[in-house]
Amino acid sequence: MRRWSIPVLDLFGIHFRVHFSFPLMFCLVWILETGHGPHVGLRSLALVGMVMFSVILHELGHALMASRHGIHVRTVVLLPIAGISLLDEQAQRDMDARCEILIALAGPLVNLVLALLIVASSLIFHPQSHMFAFPWLTPFDLPRSFLWAQLFVGALNLLPAYPLDGGRILRALLAANGDRVTATRRAVSIGQFFSFGLFLLGGAVFLGSNSNNLWIMMAGVFLFLAAQLEDRSMILQAVLERVSVADVMSTEFATLSPADTLADALRRPTEPPQEEFPVVRGTDMVGVISRQQMAASFTEDGDGYVQSAMSREYLVAAPQESLAAVLRRIGRTGLAMIPVVENDYLVGVVTFQNLMRKLTALSLRRTARKQEPTGAHAAQQ
Fold first, then answer.
1. Taking CA 50 as the corner, what is the angle to CA 45 and CA 52, rounded to the nearest 5 degrees?
2. Contact criterion met (CB below 8 Å) for 315 and 216
3. What is the mean pLDDT of residues 39-64?
4. Phi and psi dihedrals of 161, rounded to 5?
5. By three-state DSSP, how is residue 192 classified?
6. How many CB atoms lie within 10 A of CB 36?
7. How many helices and strands (H and E) does the chain possess?
8. Please, which pLDDT band fits residue 77 given cuts at 50, 70 and 90?
9. Angle at which helices 21-33 and 40-68 cross, to 10°
10. Which of 128, 277, 294, 344 is the one with CA 20 to 30 A from 32?
């Protein structure tokens, strides 16, 4: 998700990121409307901004309802049809179907209520506004487009197509037996069916009709992209739940003493290269420190002891814990290293630096084990 999105704003403690599909939508609208009037580029940008604003309001509705149930939304990736929320995963796993359904309904409700307010205001203050004329979404009538952006985002999200809100409600009902991964995969499949249906529906009438059909086609494309993002995220989560810390932790690592000087610690070579260090006094771990911390302290205060620059607050993991649980812990705390402790002894560390190398080696070993029976059987023949 981070690879295909950029940060835009922080609002109420939520990090909003814009998916690359928003610039793609702007280009499509601009190309479609080129030659239809002056300032088409600015008007197209304003139209796309209205859609983005509608999606942000939609996601704030979700976040408010989630907060009422004790669930914090950390990040939202904005797509033109909806947002993909990254929730506190422990709380997300613990919430029941009723809670998930209420959170899912809150987003469309915000858009539909706002749409009703816009219609009521136009009927009272400007009855000649033609809010329901064609085309619904156009750069050349922005007040009308603002109404239909709300209706577009709100109504579309009620479709039973994951990861839209209707699909999340469907997933909650399918997961009543407790198998959330299987329920998500089924809901994603239904979502992909709807995405192709929307694309074909818009394409079937696109050539002989107005630009409204382009929005239907784009909705299908963006729904497919959103479904793929959620599907990959769920698959990765399921894989990480099956990998234990013992499978990926590094047992070859250097430690520092609180009595080491910063200059000596910075000069000390490590093999393999190591950026974060546990700080150990005797057999007791008393802190963690990184080369960056040591360099910053050395630059600001001159040479001193590791004890003065180390972090005394740190989290530990057990070898039998799942990698998913440890990664959630790293994500919440921002720590770059998690020490692994067994029976009060430091037995390993998990860092982002060595994680990909360990996961790649683990994948190769498991692939080799799966191929061994086939190879042995062929050799016997």
1. 95
2. no
3. 89
4. -130, 110
5. helix
6. 12
7. 14, 8
8. confident
9. 150
10. 128
Tokens, residue 339: 């020490």
Residues in the chain, overall count: 381
**pLDDT per position as a tens digit, 269-307:** 877 778 888 999 887 888 889 888 899 999 998 999 999
CA distance 286 to 50: 52
What CA–CA distance (Å, rounded) separates 358 from 260?
Answer: 30
Instruction: Name residue, tokens 């705390």.
Output: 333
Contact 287, 265 (CB under 8 A): no
Q: Which two tokens stand for residue 179?
A: 């198998």
Largest CA distance in the chain: 87
Tokens standing for residue 184: 């998500």
For residue 349, give the H/E element and its range. Answer: strand 345-351
* Fold classified for 247-360: CBS-domain (3.10.580)
- Domain ranges in the chain? 5-237, 247-360
